[in-house]
Amino acid sequence: MKTKIATAVSALLLCTAVATAQQPTPMYEGHRDQLDTNDNGSVNRTEYQAFMNDAFKKLDTNGDGSLRAGEVGKVLTPAQFAATDRDGNGNVSQKEFMNQVMADFAKADRSGDGQLQ
Length: 117
Fold this sequence. Notes:
- 50% of the residues lie in helices and 9% in strands.
- The protein is mainly alpha-helical.
- It has a two-stranded antiparallel ribbon with strand order 1-4. It has a two-stranded antiparallel sheet with strand order 2-3.
């Protein structure tokens, strides 16, 4: 299960502030299937947010409410971690994490309809 979360989270951190690609990565069918809890063929903002909140809790292996580089080393590159750590304290809080992933969602939502296909 932890491997599934790590794989999905790394795939779903679509475009951090330091990403080199100009276009967001498309959502792959396997990832969509994991997140599409209402089985309508797309992932809405609420589904994405719920998944990422749960992912944060699973990644926070020491349960201190923040992520350290060692906890997410297989999910985030050092550059992605640094970009997500907005206050530069060496930890990614749940708020920083959620702000980043929801910004990524918004960038990936090219149509602006609140759905990822």
